[in-house]
Amino acid sequence: MTETLWYTRCPVPTASGLAHSLGWLGDTAAEAGLQFGVLQDAGPELAAHHFLHDLSGLVREGGNVPAIAARAQGSPTRLIGLTWIDEAQAILVGPESEVATPAELAGLRVGIPAWAQDQARSFPRAMALHGFAGALRLGGLTLADVRVVEVGVERNPQVRTETQSVRRTTTWGVEELLRGAVDAIYVKGARAQEIAREHGLRVAVNLDATENKRLRVNNGTPRPITVHADLLESRPEVVVGFLAQSLRAANWAAGDLDGVRAVLQRETLSGPEGVAAAYGADFHKDLHPSLSDERVELIGVQKQFLYTHGFLAADFDLESWVAREPLARARELVESGRVPA
Fold first, then answer.
1. Which of 73, 81, 101, 304 is the most buried (most CB within 10 A)?
2. CA distances from 178 to 125, 171, 202, 270 (A)
């Protein structure tokens, strides 16, 4: 049985990240007689669990590529929640480019990060491929209508989490775009917005502008909350408490935009302008995790894309991954006011 409630997350707006910043997740662990640990603070020897998700006692809220890849490889995880926050997904072109519509992407050289050391850590490649696929579909095109040019990735033997790599992952392809080796790149998030402004890059396609959520599905949309099955089976009340504190933090966030942005500046390693540009003015109103039919369907869209493009070791039944009871019980706790304040 686990003695530590482990938590790992990515540098983006999440209710669990806010709950952690407010100290509430640590309180939940202490109430259950557990230690509380954060992978990002634990050193490289534990960092791989962010991707492999095989650490007993771990709850993860992060990009869906590593989460889905881990499940496909047999990691014993359950999906206990999904969030959706648009993260300023865009296709960028150089300052002198005249490309301004999805249809004009036809024939361009698009920068796609090369494969990393395994499928789960190749999330930048998956992000770029799916980002371009969505943009091209807006113009009636497919990936077959562009020329893929692989751009370099960091191949450091030290294991890094998505958080520890944030500055690097948001700049993949920028150098190649600036020197003319590619014509367009995919970017997302607060740091990407700052980098685009710093280099005078232009937005050719703003994926957030399309109302079709299927075309905005990517590594962070929707974003899964997953838990190691051992923790859910042995200490279900801890998982319920984790989710209840996340729901409580989402309620707090809905009324305190400035407070949320202050936390995000630390999480994303970005300034206030980058956070505002990436997430807008209303993102804080709906950080609540859910397992709605729509969100489960959209994570299924991502799973199918990843399987089709070689990012999964095997396919798996999506419904068998979903565990709905913990979130339902957490909602009951919050609505009844029984979550410790």
1. 81
2. 19, 11, 11, 22
What DSSP line would sit under 121-139, residue for residue?
GGHHHHHHHHHHHHHHHHT
* Listed residue (206, 214, 174, 180) closest to 101, CA to CA: 206
Element (H, E) at 112: strand 109-113
DSSP string, 217-246: -BTTBSEEEEEEHHHHHH-HHHHHHHHHHH
Q: What is the pLDDT of residues 302-311, one digit of tens each?
A: 999 999 999 9
State the pLDDT at residue 43.
Answer: 79
Q: Give me the amino acid identity at 330.
A: A
Residue among 109, 133, 161 nearest 309 (CA)? 133
Q: pLDDT, tens digit, for every residue of 272-291?
A: 776 666 676 677 778 899 99
Rounded Cα distance, 167 and 237, in Å = 36
Give, for 93, the enclosing helix (H) or strand (E).
strand 90-93
* Dihedral sign computed on CA atoms, order 83, 84, 85, 89: positive
Q: What distance in Å separates the CA atoms of residue 21 and residue 77, rounded to the nearest whole number?
A: 25
Residue 82 — left, alpha, or beta (φ > 0 → left; ψ -120 to 50 → alpha)? beta
pLDDT in tens, 208-247: 999 999 999 999 999 999 999 999 999 999 999 999 999 9
Higher-confidence residue: 59 or 191? 59
Mean residue pLDDT of the chain comes to: 89
DSSP assignment, residue 181?
S
